[in-house]
Amino acid sequence: MAERASERLLRLLGMITYLDRHAGVPVEQVAAHFGVSPRQVIDDVDTLWMTGTPGYYPHDLIDFDAASYEEGVVRLTEARGMTRPLRLGTREAVALVAALRAMREALDPSLDAERSQVLSSALEKLTAATGEAAAGVDVRLAVDGAPQVVAAIGSALQSGRRMWLRYVNASDVASEREVDPIRLVTSDERSYLLAWCLRAGGERLFRVDRVVAARALDVPAEPHPVSGRATDFRPDASGGLVTLRLASRARWVAESVPVEAVRNDPDGSFEVDLRVANQAWLRHLVLSVAEDVLEVRPSEVAAAVADFARDALEAYGPLGEQAAPTS
Amino acid sequence: MPEQIHPAERLLNLVIALVNTSARMTKDQIRTSVAGYGDAPSDDAFERMFERDKDTLRELGIPILTVTGAGHGDDIGYRIDQEAYALPAIDLTPAELGVLSLASQFWQDQSVRTDTTRALTKLRAVGDAPEAADLVAGLAPRVRAAGDSFGPLLEAIQARRVVTFTYRAASTGEVRARSVEPWRLLARRGGWFLVGHDRERGEARSFRLSRIEGPVRATGPEGAFDAPDADVLEAAMRSWSGGSQQIAVLAVRPERAEALRARALSSADDMGPAEPGVAAAPADRDVVRVPFTSLGEMAEEVLGYGDAVVVLAPAALRQAVVRLLRVAAGLHPASSGGPSDG
Q1: 8 Å CB contact of A299 and B341
Q2: Is the separation of the CB atoms in B324 and A290 below 8 Å?
Q3: Cα A44 to Cα A46: distance, rounded to the nearest angstrom
């Protein structure tokens, strides 16, 4: 059996506590409650039925009402004193409380009053039950969409409706499209809307800070197959290979950009290999780390970035002259 | 040969026995009477099994207490005190369980996921009905994986123990051992960080978790340092708090940078020609005022628009952008100036 004994033990104990509080629960409901299959619940009940205090005579054992069980209903008749719920361990409490705090801060704009209230009450109850354990971890999620956009996405997701979006892509080109929203991914780095784009006929990831307008339509969203890994932003990797040699200070590039390979030099500098089809994205990356770029291969990429920068400097005219380069 | 008893069943029998025992059970009593331990083929095998089970139960938050017999000191028994491990009274609605379930999927690290999955199993025991996911449908909040150092650092923060680790400095690339009193773990745009007191430098420092090389080790006793005063912690955290809001005044080409325009203050807000830089705006551009908190992030965003967006004010933002543009322009000589180096 793949499941670890400790995880199964926790569920067995949890089931005793739960069934002690709820007289007669159908197997399917127990399964839904603990997130396992009905088959697993039957296995678990059969195991519980054989455990108890030493001696293991019938009156020593955890017991269920056999007639109910025949009908698929689990009715606990003897708990052997195991009815107290388990307290959360420190790490367990910290992880959940820190997550809830970050969610309350970041998701609030996408929630209506009722859902916002549920999030708060869950956090309050958990904090009351575990103490102020979570001060050691502080997670801040990116909230980088316009409030009305985020609210429209939240409401469309909840009511399962199609959306109209106005979206600006990495090349600063705006387009309008209808999408069936699938998921709003709020992470520490960026927020994305995963949606089925009707114009493209496929799954697309939209940066929420580039959705400039959004509204839910009076059309139900259709269900679409969702690929499992679609929530991670990956630039289209069909482009040619580009290598950047960077000074140590730009190490975040190797850590936060999908790179094909990283080679470290003893002096702290390093090279990353990238494969990117979107030239605007690549240009923006090189611009952001310009001060730490030691080399770009092929040189056409460096030439394109340099031309782009010169055009921009020209736009500053005398304004740009005022800014003496600091070294 | 009797059928092997599943380890979970043996553990459950041990817990039930030690909760129900009138005073305590000795190891011998456990071995001979608790179902599952009879399977141990030797004394050694039993000892290993029992020690491992004790560790497992402690890990799950069910500590086994050691009780010494009244008469002789070497006569050791065991029991479990239910009061010590019980969750305080808590009732969770299906909707609240749904939110907690979402919170349990927040973490990408497998080790933390194990913790949150366990927490959820414990909480489901006190939930009324299966969790209702419809309230949080479609929301996927998450934090990036923090890596192997997260667990040991969190333990050390809770226990207030000093940690040592090898760290690669960003500025120099230098790799050196550090000794730190850990205060807090932060997830921000850009990564996971540890804020703490660097013992060698004698001051508060931040460390990026991804630059910690090799294992994090806790050394010395628990409670080795006092938790930082609120103002000390606040000072150390200041660079992470996002800063105060400023307004970028931008000269934007018509019909460009719509994503910036969408965040702009409305033109009805006070904006006179007296405002710094506005008078210098080229006539063919729109003046747009966009609030921001992080100068670095704003500069990076503006850079991407190239000549479509010119920063008029504040000067610090303009200088940051212009400086990066100059450096970028120097990455390659202008192609119009001479033969290309194809």
Answers
A1: yes
A2: yes
A3: 5
B234: Cα separation from own chain's centroid:
18
Residue B144 contacts residue A187 (beta carbons within 8 Å): yes
Structure tokens at B93: 């609605």
Same domain, A132 and A162: no
How far apart (Å, rounded) are the C-alpha atoms in residues B283 and A131?
60
Question: Quick check: ipTM above 0.90?
Answer: no
The domain that holds A37 is classified in CATH as 1.10.10
Please name each of the domains of chain B with its CATH number: 7-85 (1.10.10.10), 94-136 (no CATH), 150-240 (2.30.30), 246-329 (no CATH)
Nearest to A92 among B17, B115, B332 (CB): B115
Query: Residue A168 — φ and ψ, nearest 5°?
Result: -110, 125
For A92, residues 6+ apart whose C-beta sits below 8 A from its C-beta are: B61, B115, B116, B118, B119, B122
A160-195 as b/e: b if 16+ CB within 10 A: bbbbbbbbbebebeeeebbbbbbbbbbbbbbbbbbb
Q: Which of A303, A319, A325 sits opposite B280 (nearest CB)?
A: A319
Q: From the DSSP assignment, how many helices (H) and strands (E) are in chain B? A: 11, 12
Asked if B330 and A319 come within 8 Å (Cβ–Cβ), the reply is no
Q: Between chains, do B136 and A308 touch, taking CB under 8 Å as contact?
A: no
Cβ atoms within 10 Å, residue A88: 27
What average pLDDT does this structure show over B183-190? 88
Q: Report the predicted TM-score, pTM, of the whole model to 2 decimal places.
A: 0.82
Rounded to an integer, the average pLDDT of A67-90 is 92
